[in-house]
Amino acid sequence: MRERLQTESSGGVFANKDLVRSDTIIDEDRIVGRDEQLGRVVDNLKPVLHEEGIPDMLLSGPSGTGKSLIIHAVCKQIVELCESQGKTFGVLSINCEGPKTADRAVYRLVKCAADDLGVDPGVPQTGVSTDQKLERLYELMREYYDGVIFILDEIDMLEGPYQEAEYNSLIYQLSRARGLADFDGPISLTAITNYADFMKDLNSRAQSSYNPDDIFFDDYDATQLRSILMHRRDAFKPGSLADDVIPLVAAFGSQTHGDARKAIDLLRWAGELAERRGSDTVTEPAVREAQEKYTENRKLRHISGISTQKKLSIYAVAATAYYTKGNPEWIPAGPAFKTYQFIADAMDADRYSRETFVNHVTEQSTYGVLDFERRGKGRGRGVHMYFSLSESPETIMSTIREDSRFTDLAKEDAPIRAVVREHMKRFHNDN
Ligand SMILES: Nc1ncnc2c1ncn2[C@@H]1O[C@H](COP(=O)(O)OP(=O)(O)OP(=O)(O)O)[C@@H](O)[C@H]1O
């Protein structure tokens, strides 16, 4: 079982499955089309190489149309070219679906910079003001970077609990960095959104401080999708993909909003279905079946594409939520880690450290799968990390069990429940 777990896929159709995972960062030569948008982003960021100012940008357009791909691909090149000039360009990118407030989003930016630089974040997530977090962000910028781009993906998701959406405050505060950060290098504030009219939703304060170059990404048609998929054909072993599969996936993709992510996921799902059936070729019926099963739920689709260890970590959190009496919304990391260790042993998989487990779990907040926070259990009872899933634990568990490497976990119901209950009880008694 261990061997089976450690191989990337259990069957025989994939040669490099990463190429059909939509969160894989692909090489430039696999980017198809989008010349106009690519050209504009390149022209906007090129001045960094000459220590000149760079504009703010707003990348808008429907889901899966290459917005994140293009900005990250260009930033990657800029980072490399800066490196060759002995300069450091900081790409501080967060997804705004996870943090619920501007304060948390600022913390994530600090964390992103600290992780990139391999230094301590230097501020706690809670207990200090947003200004203190911003000051730390500026400090890191002054100390380590020669230029910075803030990338705020899914900016419209940062609505927050107040009447006025939190993205206003985040945009306002970050766009003032040029004046307030005492940072000499170029700065761009680049937001990504699905809404073409996003600027109209901003309040006047945010609007007056943020004047981005608005770059629009439209839907892909079937021909463009086909070409995107053809450039990833080598995800499959030679001869394992019937000729009509890519055109059919592209046709389905163009019917459902021209979203390349959906098309790539559908191709992978068809491959996985074929493998589960023990087939060594992906054919049209597998595509049709995958299309039927294909839910609109992006978070679940995301989970089905992550690595085995990450699935294992998320499964442990979901199982801890599911088997705990009363199904609490917030799950403490301690007992969830015990569940993880138990499940890893049951599957004969490697057990990673608690830190790696926590990283694997918190990373998923970027994709809106869950939220996390540190909080106290009450006076003098310590601060603990907690996770809160955004989908029902049962749905998450059954999605992960669709992966043949996890299917057998359904049989471990009773022992997992016992482990969860014992460790949740200990957690409550100990602290
Ligand atoms: N022109 C393209 N060439 C190759 N792959 C593409 C292209 N456009 C999109 N993709 C792939 O499709 C997937 C989704 O693209 P991306 O994440 O850039 O979409 P997006 O526009 O940022 O979507 P969202 O608004 O939902 O975040 C990624 O796996 C990306 O690699």
Give the topology, please.
Elements: H1 2-6, H2 35-45, E1 57-60, H3 67-84, E2 89-95, H4 102-117, H5 130-144, E3 147-153, H6 166-175, H7 177-180, E4 187-193, H8 198-201, H9 204-209, E5 213-216, H10 222-230, H11 245-255, H12 260-276, H13 284-293, H14 298-304, H15 308-323, E6 331-332, H16 333-346, H17 354-363, E7 370-376, E8 383-389, H18 393-401, H19 413-430
Parallel strand pairs: 1-4, 1-5, 2-3, 3-4
Antiparallel strand pairs: 6-8, 7-8
Helix pairs in contact: 2-3, 4-5, 4-6, 10-11, 11-12, 12-13, 15-16, 15-17, 15-18, 16-19
The structure holds adenosine-5'-triphosphate (ATP).
Molecular structure report:
- The chain is an alpha/beta fold and 431 residues long.
- It has three domains: 31-216, Rossmann fold (3-Layer(aba) Sandwich); 220-294, Helicase, Ruva Protein, domain 3; 306-430, Winged helix-like DNA-binding domain superfamily/Winged helix DNA-binding domain (Arc Repressor Mutant, subunit A), CATH 1.10.10.
- It contains 19 helices and eight strands.
- The strands form two sheets. A five-stranded parallel β-sheet has the order 2-3-4-1-5, sandwiched between helices. A three-stranded antiparallel β-sheet has the order 6-8-7.
- β7 (370-376) and β8 (383-389) form a beta hairpin.
- The radius of gyration is 23 Å and the shape is globular.
- The two termini are 37 Å apart.
- The structure holds adenosine-5'-triphosphate.
- Adenosine-5'-triphosphate (ATP) is lined by residues 22, 26, 30-34, 63-69, 194, 217, 228, 260-261, 264.
